[in-house]
Design a protein that fits this description.
123 residues; mainly alpha; 0% strand
């Protein structure tokens, strides 16, 4: 795997901007969850089997564009630097830079917004 080349090569600023963008989208979604009185996202996906499909669909809608952007930038990097495309590596990068920050931030933002009085009570 060529994952180590990505940190020091060209376009390395994406390792900063892409997680920040994912965090922004997660914060926005977490505030929306608090405003609508929904429980924190990741916890709900794990626990609430009845609404899991709906929650996953909503989460996907929130970050689909970001993931497409991350994969596109990684493919551009691969073509420029490695002269070949490794789809599995692009997927791994998309998960690390997009999905993980999103999942880690959305729930705590929802909880914090509720504590600060910006959301309504939980379901």
């Amino acid at each position: 795997m060529n994952l180590a080349h990505r940190v020091h090569g060209p376009m390395r600023l994406r390792f900063v901007f892409q997680p920040i963008t994912a965090s922004f989208l997660a914060s926005r979604a977490g505030l929306r969850d608090a405003r609508e009185g929904r429980p924190p996202y990741f916890w709900s996906v794990l626990i609430d089997a009845g609404h899991r499909r709906e929650l996953l669909r909503e989460g996907w809608k929130d970050i689909a564009r970001l993931l497409i952007l991350i994969v596109a930038l990684d493919v551009a990097f691969q073509l420029y630097e490695l002269r070949w495309v490794y789809p599995l590596e692009s997927f791994i990068i998309a998960v690390i830079l997009g999905v993980f920050p999103y999942l880690l931030i959305r729930g705590p933002v929802c909880r914090l917004a509720r504590l600060m009085g910006r959301g309504s009570a939980s379901r």
